[in-house]
Amino acid sequence: MTIEQAKQIDLVDYLDKLGHTPTRISGNSYWYLSPLRDEKTASFKVNRNRNQWYDFADGKGGNLIDFGILYHKCSVSDLLQRLAQDKLIPEKQILNSVNVQKIEKERNISIISTAPITSLPLIRYYRSRRIADEMARKCLKEVNYENQGKAYYALGFQNDSGGWELRNEYSKVSSTPKDLTFINNGANKLVVFEGFFDYLSFLTIHHKQQQDALNFMVLNSTAFFEKALEKMAIHHRIHLYLDNDTTGQKCVDKVLPIDAKKFIDERQLYKGYNDLNEWLQKIGLAQKKSLRQHW
């Protein structure tokens, strides 16, 4: 990996992979308890627009290279080797210049209109993810949006702050404000997912099954996991359908010591697959009976 490639890795995603989540998010400003030392008041800020950090307590800041050599106490060459080999940074997170331009464009998204899904390409797309028509129409909208003067459309899933997760066959972007989505059905059991396709997968698997009322939470980003803990705590039982990766494991490791009976790690059900939707696409419908019996 080159220095320029390393600088293009998103700092917020990198910190998330290292197990550091923001205590507060305000626009493009992400505030953390400093990963570089112990503290009780968050003084470490990441400007996601600039992909730069600054530690107000130490008076230090810079790019990901500057952070990495302090965090890992290593040389630049050692850091580049670590970033290239360390599983904390999957290949999809290493951003080339095209992806950097995509991130900048994403921050200028304007929502033009929302409506029921009628576009055949969008219908074909959610069906390719093996999502039932009934679930897609119930939970998603067809969203027309503008980005730097160009018009686009996508499947849209709304968060609690009014922002949208936008997906089509070719793009995966979000409009601001970014937030989690909580679906409150008045239940004492909560089912938690990282992304909305996992949520829709769960609904697709169970939509013909009679079951007790459940509340649902879609994080839309694991950066909101700690923020979500307060809502999780009011439930008697929390079922975690997180990704089978390092970040998913870190989230599980945070809550199981709190109450191993209350928090249930459900990832064994789709072991060997990144998430519930990938499992559903590849083998899920053929084996969904076993998952239904689980409930």
User: How do the helices and strands follow one another from N- to C-terminus?
Assistant: HHEEEEEHHHEHHEEEEEEHEHEHEH
Using only C-alpha atoms, the radius of gyration works out to 20 Å
Name given to the CATH architecture of the largest domain: 3-Layer(aba) Sandwich
Which bin fits the share of residues in helices?
A: 25-40%
Give structural notes.
The chain has 295 residues and is an alpha+beta fold. The protein folds into three domains: 3-104, DNA Primase, Chain A, CATH 3.90.580; 108-174, no CATH class; 181-294, Dna Topoisomerase Vi A Subunit, Chain: A, domain 2 (3-Layer(aba) Sandwich), CATH 3.40.1360. 36% of the residues lie in helices and 23% in strands. The chain contains eleven helices and 15 strands. The strands form three sheets. A five-stranded antiparallel beta sheet has the order 1-2-3-4-5, with helices on one face. Strands 6-7-8-9-10 form a five-stranded antiparallel beta sheet. Strands 11-13-12-14-15 form a five-stranded mixed beta sheet. α8 runs parallel beside α11. The chain is globular. The N and C termini lie far apart (45 Å). Mean pLDDT is 87; it is low at 87-104.
